[in-house]
């Protein structure tokens, strides 16, 4: 079958070359249409249910909202994890589904359960809503509005009602979060004394405003041939109309209006967060979120276009500063990938030219690379695989040209010895290609098999590395198409007859190799023993490397995450944020910074005022002076901040890293220890002890124990006995409590398309316990009594945050690791905690974070890789029909590991999943080189040569082919191995492992494999063929 395909290519060579050129030209259409991002989106399938309820306590929200929602979600099909965070006035329940579940189907399932549970949640505790459909890569653009002439309220309103709606209309944008500034609302600030003077209660005012702010429909009437719709418009439109609402009437019928009872004004909503910028003051910011599954480069490009139009229409005094732009990270990462690929292509082409010494042959072979890559791009588009650092950054061009290299070697050798006067050049080329077509297909099949284990990965690691395996498989498929259909046609058209040069360096090398391979065969015992010793020595070296999941990718910007005591007030948090930003501004590497404390008035993230994230934009790394790597710079910033700013705990992360870790595991740290139990005080005590133990483990950079307690409260409990004496009800006291600071929402006021809340408040009180006890409350007879006379007002401590997982309370201890590999740190930390911490009954620990992904991936690969290797061995046995050949060829796998491990150790790199991918690729390369030599040896033995002569002459005959395939495999990774550009952190371990392994497998293979074959076949050439005729590898 394969021979017929190559014969067809030679006969229809003009057509095949045209088709090949058409594929190359199609790349101009395919490449721009490939969805691209810097890194794969590894976020799991999840739906978040948010419920907001003003200033209610965390325990109340847990009891009345979080627990009912969690119970409603149990039993959902495909549910894998259920976790929640509850803070004062906010509940966030995260429902995680199995991979493969459609996110829209998951949202539909959750929505149905939410509708069922709504009836169980009291109205005053809010209504559950689903958070926007986004991912860890969703935050793609952030900007700040500035103006010297406008207030923060004007800027916030401009952002919320003019800019955000336009950005939300951009295809691919799901939400624009506005934060900072003052959110405008209409307020009625009642004077309790005036209420008492008119004999009115707070409840009467609330009822009047609610009823007086409505519109109704009355149907329609007919007048002649026309129909008129009947409408009753009673919506309030401005301060004047609000003040004119009638509450009651006095004894003589004079109406009592709202404005007579207090002040009606435009005011600012009670803030739950603050935004600061560059240590200069507050700011107003907008964060653009991308819809899941979108092409981030295209979406960011559309956002840029819309922002340009918005800028042109803004008032002259309003400026827009971009503080985060995903496009810059994407472009830097893709530039790294493109540069490494182009440099690798050029190096491979040069190596091929040097070895083949024919520019026609070198050009023809090299064209197989873009041909295969373009077919791979079309396949990626069809399969929905994005182009990214992971999918494109690990392509080995050497593997893509193995088939054409084998073919061109066969063709040029045949042309050098064939008498072209008796046969046509085309026939000679066709015969040469036909002879190697089956081995070429067999070679690609082996390489595909070694990538199968990556396709079996699941979860986070699967989303990271399956695209790589898929892309490589598509590219290999493209290389086979090129080798079988295009290369034969190109060879028939363009390759000329001539000498198969053996002079120069390659000739000298063959001469030296002839001598050395003779010695290797004679000293086969010691040589094999030396190889075994090297392999044994590799084991402890590999064990000392340490292990990481994936090297940390330098995004170019950092996030300074600050955690403080839960009781910290917003004003103090703002002051401390500005201090931190001034400290950061002293670092010459910093371009700009923006800090976000707490959450916006419309909650989308369950954080409190004790949480601050400062996004720091950095200069290019070649301009750094404080440090030369991200970890060192982060440590210097952390030390400076914690030494100069009090009450500040700092951890350093990056924008995508931070968001992705939080969405996947609910934690932003490298390692998260989960403590489960019931009593928050006891859990907090155990957590602090665990934190102290972890700080003593080398490599613990940031250790943070989640603060579940420490939220001071003023607790007001109505005294029903005292209330009865005044003829009052408890809801009147609770309404006064709500109106005292936050205000009671009684509706909305519309200004065109803008919708502002209408709230009723009481006058500001002295912010103390005694001041609150003096808060006046109206009685039924029109008198005023301090709230302290009808209710107990006491100070109390409560939980600031209640975290739950799997329907149990949970406390998290987080660790970020610095200067050490992940796995060895976790091993030492586990041992230390087990030694020093004894958990009481009903309390237990779980360890999570990045290392969990590594363990899961390692376990999966540990199961699948041996199966793939066993299949490869079976294929070798089938190909050679002799277990001795199969074993000898298969020995190249451990020999390849020697160099890979040594290279990682020499560069100080821990073992990681990218390095594992490199070792997987090495298996294919090592086996292929062995197949080339063993096939030639067996062919010569079948031809009647003695074992030693066949081994010697066969090894010499394939020397150039082995060196060429090994060199192009290694040299193609050289740019990745030495690159220091954005995203190269993932490529370097892979490239290092491949290059080191190719060196060891080639050197040992050229000498140890002949020795092994000599040892295995030492009886006679007949004994080597006793098991049946040789079959070409296929």
TrEMBL record:
<dbReference type="GO" id="GO:0008324">
    <property type="term" value="F:monoatomic cation transmembrane transporter activity"/>
</dbReference>
<feature type="transmembrane region" description="Helical">
    <location>
        <begin position="527"/>
        <end position="547"/>
    </location>
</feature>
<feature type="transmembrane region" description="Helical">
    <location>
        <begin position="337"/>
        <end position="356"/>
    </location>
</feature>
<protein>
    <submittedName>
        <fullName>Cobalt-zinc-cadmium resistance protein CzcA</fullName>
    </submittedName>
</protein>
<feature type="transmembrane region" description="Helical">
    <location>
        <begin position="397"/>
        <end position="416"/>
    </location>
</feature>
<feature type="transmembrane region" description="Helical">
    <location>
        <begin position="990"/>
        <end position="1013"/>
    </location>
</feature>
<keyword id="KW-0812">Transmembrane</keyword>
<feature type="transmembrane region" description="Helical">
    <location>
        <begin position="12"/>
        <end position="31"/>
    </location>
</feature>
<feature type="transmembrane region" description="Helical">
    <location>
        <begin position="861"/>
        <end position="880"/>
    </location>
</feature>
<keyword id="KW-0813">Transport</keyword>
<feature type="transmembrane region" description="Helical">
    <location>
        <begin position="887"/>
        <end position="905"/>
    </location>
</feature>
<feature type="transmembrane region" description="Helical">
    <location>
        <begin position="436"/>
        <end position="454"/>
    </location>
</feature>
<comment type="similarity">
    <text>Belongs to the resistance-nodulation-cell division (RND) (TC 2.A.6) family.</text>
</comment>
<dbReference type="InterPro" id="IPR027463">
    <property type="entry name" value="AcrB_DN_DC_subdom"/>
</dbReference>
<dbReference type="GO" id="GO:0005886">
    <property type="term" value="C:plasma membrane"/>
</dbReference>
<feature type="transmembrane region" description="Helical">
    <location>
        <begin position="911"/>
        <end position="934"/>
    </location>
</feature>
<dbReference type="Pfam" id="PF00873">
    <property type="entry name" value="ACR_tran"/>
</dbReference>
<dbReference type="GO" id="GO:0042910">
    <property type="term" value="F:xenobiotic transmembrane transporter activity"/>
</dbReference>
<dbReference type="InterPro" id="IPR004763">
    <property type="entry name" value="CusA-like"/>
</dbReference>
<feature type="transmembrane region" description="Helical">
    <location>
        <begin position="474"/>
        <end position="495"/>
    </location>
</feature>
<keyword id="KW-1003">Cell membrane</keyword>
<dbReference type="InterPro" id="IPR001036">
    <property type="entry name" value="Acrflvin-R"/>
</dbReference>
<keyword id="KW-0472">Membrane</keyword>
<feature type="transmembrane region" description="Helical">
    <location>
        <begin position="955"/>
        <end position="978"/>
    </location>
</feature>
<keyword id="KW-1133">Transmembrane helix</keyword>
<feature type="transmembrane region" description="Helical">
    <location>
        <begin position="363"/>
        <end position="385"/>
    </location>
</feature>
């Amino acid at each position: 079958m394969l021979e017929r395909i190559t014969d067809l290519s030679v006969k229809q060579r003009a057509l095949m070359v045209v088709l090949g050129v058409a594929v190359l030209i199609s790349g101009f259409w395919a490449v721009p249409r490939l969805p691209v991002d810097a890194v794969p989106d590894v976020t799991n399938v999840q739906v978040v249910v948010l419920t907001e309820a003003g200033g209610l306590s965390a325990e109340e929200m847990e009891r009345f909202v979080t627990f009912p929602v969690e119970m409603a979600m149990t039993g959902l099909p495909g549910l894998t994890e259920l976790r929640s965070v509850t803070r004062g006035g906010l509940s966030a329940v995260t429902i995680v589904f199995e991979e493969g579940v459609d996110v829209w189907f998951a949202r539909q399932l959750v929505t149905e359960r939410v509708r069922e549970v709504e009836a169980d949640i009291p109205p005053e505790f809010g209504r559950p809503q689903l958070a926007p459909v986004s991912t860890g890569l969703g935050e793609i653009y952030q900007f700040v509005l500035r103006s010297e002439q406008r207030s923060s309220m004007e800027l916030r309103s401009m952002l919320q009602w003019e800019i955000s709606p336009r950005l939300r209309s951009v295809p691919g944008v799901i939400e624009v979060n506005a934060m900072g500034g003052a959110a405008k609302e209409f307020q009625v600030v009642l004077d309790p004394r005036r209420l008492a003077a008119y004999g009115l209660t707070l409840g009467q005012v609330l009822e009047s405003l609610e009823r007086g702010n409505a519109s109704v429909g009355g149907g329609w009437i007919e007048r002649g041939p026309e129909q008129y719709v009947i409408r009753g418009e009673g919506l309030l439109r401005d301060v004047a109309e609000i003040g004119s609402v009638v509450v009651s009437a006095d004894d003589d019928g004079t109406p009592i209006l709202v404005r007579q009872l207090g002040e009606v004004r435009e005011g600012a909503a009670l803030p739950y967060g603050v935004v600061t910028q560059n240590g200069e003051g507050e700011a107003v910011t907008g964060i653009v979120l991308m819809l899941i599954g979108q092409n981030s480069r295209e979406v960011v490009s559309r956002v840029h276009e819309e922002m340009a139009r918005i800028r042109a229409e803004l008032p002259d005094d309003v400026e827009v500063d971009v503080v985060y732009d995903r496009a810059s990270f994407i472009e830097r990462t893709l530039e790294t990938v493109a540069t490494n690929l182009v440099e690798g292509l050029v190096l491979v082409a040069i190596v091929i030219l040097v070895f083949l010494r024919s520019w026609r042959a070198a050009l023809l072979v090299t064209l197989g690379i873009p041909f295969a890559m373009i077919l791979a791009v079309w396949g990626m588009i069809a399969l929905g695989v994005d182009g990214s650092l992971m999918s494109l950054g690990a392509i080995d061009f050497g593997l893509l040209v193995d088939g054409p290299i084998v073919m061109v070697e066969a063709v040029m050798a045949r042309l050098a010895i064939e008498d072209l006067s008796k046969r046509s050049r085309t026939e000679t080329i066709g015969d040469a290609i036909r002879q190697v077509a089956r081995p070429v297909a067999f070679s690609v099949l082996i390489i595909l098999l070694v990538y199968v284990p990556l396709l079996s990965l699941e979860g986070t690691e699967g989303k990271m590395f399956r695209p790589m395996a898929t892309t490589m498989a598509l590219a290999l498929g493209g290389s086979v198409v090129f080798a079988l259909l295009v290369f034969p046609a190109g060879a028939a058209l363009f390759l000329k007859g001539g000498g198969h040069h053996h002079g120069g360096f390659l000739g000298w090398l063959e001469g030296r190799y002839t001598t050395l391979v003779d010695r290797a065969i004679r000293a086969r015992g010691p040589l094999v023993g030396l190889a075994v010793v090297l392999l044994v020595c590799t084991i402890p070296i590999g064990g000392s490397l340490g292990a990481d999941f994936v090297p940390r990718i330098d995004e170019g910007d950092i996030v300074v995450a600050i955690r403080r005591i839960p009781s910290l007030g917003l004003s103090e948090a703002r002051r401390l944020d500005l201090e931190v930003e001034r400290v950061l501004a002293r670092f010459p590497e910093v371009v700009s910074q923006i800090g976000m404390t707490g959450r916006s008035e419309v909650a989308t993230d369950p954080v409190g005022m004790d949480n601050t994230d400062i996004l720091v934009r950095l200069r290019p790394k070649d301009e750094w002076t404080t440090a030369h790597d991200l970890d060192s710079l982060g440590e210097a910033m952390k030390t400076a901040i914690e030494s100069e700013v009090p009450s500040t705990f700092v951890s350093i992360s990056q924008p995508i890293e931070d968001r992705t870790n939080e969405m996947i595991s609910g934690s932003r740290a490298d390692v998260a220890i989960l403590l489960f139990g019931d009593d928050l005080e006891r859990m907090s005590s155990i957590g602090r002890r665990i934190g102290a133990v972890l700080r003593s483990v080398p490599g613990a950079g940031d250790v943070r124990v989640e603060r579940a307690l420490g939220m001071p409260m003023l607790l007001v409990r109505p005294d029903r006995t005292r209330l009865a004496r005044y003829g009052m009800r408890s809801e009147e006291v609770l309404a006064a409590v709500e109106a005292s600071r936050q205000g009671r929402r009684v509706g909305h006021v519309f200004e065109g398309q803008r919708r502002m809340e209408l709230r009723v408040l009481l006058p500001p009180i002295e912010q103390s316990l005694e001041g609150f006890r003096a808060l006046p409350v109206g009685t039924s007879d029109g008198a005023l009594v301090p709230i302290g006379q009808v209710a107990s007002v006491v100070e109390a401590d409560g939980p600031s945050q209640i975290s739950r997982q799997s329907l149990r309370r949970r406390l998290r201890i987080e660790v970020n690791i610095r200067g050490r590999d992940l796995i060895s740190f976790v091993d030492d930390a586990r041992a230390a905690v087990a030694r020093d911490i004894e958990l009481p009954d009903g309390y237990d620990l779980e360890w999570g974070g990045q290392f969990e992904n590594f363990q899961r991936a390692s376990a999966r690969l540990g199961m699948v890789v041996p199966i793939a290797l066993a299949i490869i061995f079976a294929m070798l046995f089938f190909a050679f029909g002799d277990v001795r050949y199969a074993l000898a060829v298969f020995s190249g796998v451990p020999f390849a590991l020697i160099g890979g491990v040594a290279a990682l150790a020499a560069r100080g790199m821990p073992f990681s999943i990218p390095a594992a991918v490199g070792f997987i690729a090495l298996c294919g390369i090592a086996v292929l080189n062995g197949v080339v030599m063993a096939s030639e040896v067996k062919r010569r033995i079948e031809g009647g040569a003695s074992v030693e002569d066949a081994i010697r002459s066969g090894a010499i005959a394939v020397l150039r082919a082995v060196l060429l395939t090994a060199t192009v495999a290694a040299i193609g990774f050289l740019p990745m191995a030495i690159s220091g550009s954005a995203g190269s952190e993932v490529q370097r371990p892979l490239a290092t492992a491949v290059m080191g392994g190719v060196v060891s497998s080639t050197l040992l293979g050229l000498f140890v494999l002949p020795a092994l074959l000599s040892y295995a076949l030492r009886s006679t050439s007949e004994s080597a063929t006793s098991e049946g005729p040789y079959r070409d590898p296929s």
